[in-house]
Amino acid sequence: MAEYKQGSMDIKAQERTFDGFVRMVTWGAIVVIGVLIFMALVNA
Asked: Given this model, what pLDDT does residue 9 score?
């Protein structure tokens, strides 16, 4: 079994993926809120 040293793994790819996911969720939420506001104004 190989020796494992905590904190030695390269996690740059995981960090980029997580940053992209957070960015996508943020923009998705903004779009959904914008659509809901537009629907509320049109139907008023």
From this structure: 85
Residue 32 phi/psi, 5-degree rounding, is -60, -45
Q: Is the dihedral of CA 28, 31, 36, 39 positive or negative?
A: negative
Task: Give Cα separations from 36 to 23, 26, 28, 41, 43 (angstroms).
Answer: 20, 16, 12, 9, 11
| Residue-level pLDDT at 8 | 84
> pTM, whole model, 2 decimals?
0.71
Rg (CA), the chain: 20
Residue 4, token pair as written in the block:
């494992």
Buried b (16+ CB within 10 A) or exposed e, 22-43: eeeeeeeeeeeeeeeeeeeeee
